[in-house]
Specification:
Blueprint (H helix, E strand, L loop, with lengths): L2 H7 L35 H6 L11 H13 L8 H9 L20 H8 L12 E11 L2 E9 L6 E10 L9 E8 L11
Antiparallel strand pairs: 1-2, 2-3, 3-4
């Protein structure tokens, strides 16, 4: 005899499903705690959670993505030190687990500190807090690749450099449709003297 038939045939067998709970008291959603729950969250926690750090947005075109990065670098230390470099890192389209040609040569840029040091190198530091810039040329290579050359005048005397931004629009994956920075290249031989990064 099987287990199912022995359970159902027994007159005193109990149901395997619990009986619905019935109480004479009305339901009360109050919960009382025996101790005070400590409040570890700041008063503006919810507001700060709603604010996303500035970075790539699906609504940005390639031109807007470049402009927003350059604006962040222009005001690099607002609201805090190297905030503009952080924005650049969020827009960066390289794999942090592989060496990247983001700056032209193969560098390990997986750690933000290494990325930040490159921007403080003599060639790229012109971007930090720059005074003026002008778009020299823009080119849509194809529908997912965009290049823009920008002349930048820095804060120091006679500090002028030209950079080429290459933006690539991702297709598929969690970044589908976003424009991310493939590279920021200096026109000259940037690292001829070497760089400790």
């Amino acid at each position: 005899m099987s287990f199912c038939s022995s359970v159902s045939s027994s007159p005193q067998s109990q149901s395997i499903f619990p009986k619905p709970f019935r109480s004479s008291k009305p339901y009360s959603p109050r919960i009382s705690a025996s101790a005070d729950v400590p409040d570890f969250l700041s008063a503006n926690w919810l507001e700060s959670r709603r604010k996303k750090p500035f970075g790539p947005r699906l609504c940005f075109s390639a031109e807007e993505a470049v402009r927003n990065q350059l604006d962040a670098l222009k005001y690099n230390d607002q609201p805090h030190h190297d905030y503009g470099v952080e924005v650049m890192y969020r827009f960066a389209g390289f794999d942090p687990f592989q060496r990247s040609t983001y700056f032209g040569r193969f560098f390990d840029l997986g750690q933000f500190e290494r990325f930040r040091r490159i921007f403080h190198h003599s060639t790229y530091r012109v971007l930090l807090g720059h005074q003026e810039r002008e778009i020299l040329s823009s080119l849509h290579v194809n529908e997912t690749l965009y290049k823009q050359r920008v002349w930048v005048r820095g804060t120091r005397p006679e500090e002028e450099e030209i950079f080429q931004f290459t933006m690539a629009q991702r297709v598929g994956g969690s970044w589908d449709g976003y424009w991310l920075t493939e590279s920021v290249l200096h026109d000259g031989d940037t690292f001829s003297g070497g760089v400790a990064y």
